[in-house]
Design goal:
By secondary structure, this protein is of the alpha/beta class. It contains 5 helices and 5 strands; from the N terminus they run E-H-H-E-H-E-H-E-E-H. It has a 5-stranded parallel sheet with strand order 2-1-3-4-5, with helices on both faces. Bound molecules: ligand CA2.
């Protein structure tokens, strides 16, 4: 049976690579998806990769990850990081490891970006590695679930 990691991306990340490259780099979200698929494939894992600008849609997808028995979930909640108790509540229902990813180091930025509700449900947080943070998160999940490199 296939083992799937959900990779969810929050608001505005559909525009990655088109604005503020000095902060976020030049890679697009399609590049991030490719990187996630390639990293997961090394461990024989599948990726379900999605982006939404709508909080409730992200909540529904987290519930879907639970229903479909995803082996892990990577989330860059973007602007919902600091506001969304609904996303936190959904993530708290998952038994599978949740990894929070931020492309930038949120702790080096404005004070309002420092507090994350999502961190309460995260096994680990990657911040400041650029898009490599997604690959590191997937490698981390592979280790946590005992998936061996093929
Ligand atoms: O560093 C991250 O990954 C963030 O989650 C990105 C969010 C920001 O609100 C968080 O504080 C940190 C912003 C995502 C904006 O998406 C972009 C759109 C166009 C170009 C670059 C980023």
């Amino acid at each position: 049976m296939s083992q799937t990691i959900f990779v969810l991306n929050g608001p505005n990340l559909n525009l990655l690579g088109t604005r503020e490259p000095e902060k976020y780099g030049h890679s697009t979200l399609a590049d991030v998806e490719k990187l996630c698929r390639a990293t997961a494939a090394r461990f024989g894992l599948d990726v379900d990769f999605r982006q939404s600008n709508i909080e409730g849609e992200l909540v529904t997808w987290i519930q879907e990850a639970l229903a479909k028995k995803a082996v892990g979930l990577v989330i860059n909640p973007a602007g919902y990081t600091t506001t969304s108790i609904a996303i936190l509540d959904a993530l708290l229902m998952l038994k599978a490891p949740v990894i929070e990813v931020h492309i930038t180091n949120i702790h080096q930025r404005e004070e309002f970006r420092h507090h994350s509700y999502v961190s309460k449900a995260a096994k680990a947080v990657m911040a400041g590695f650029g898009i490599d943070g997604y690959a590191l998160a997937i490698t981390g999940i592979a280790g946590m679930i005992g998936a061996k490199e093929k």
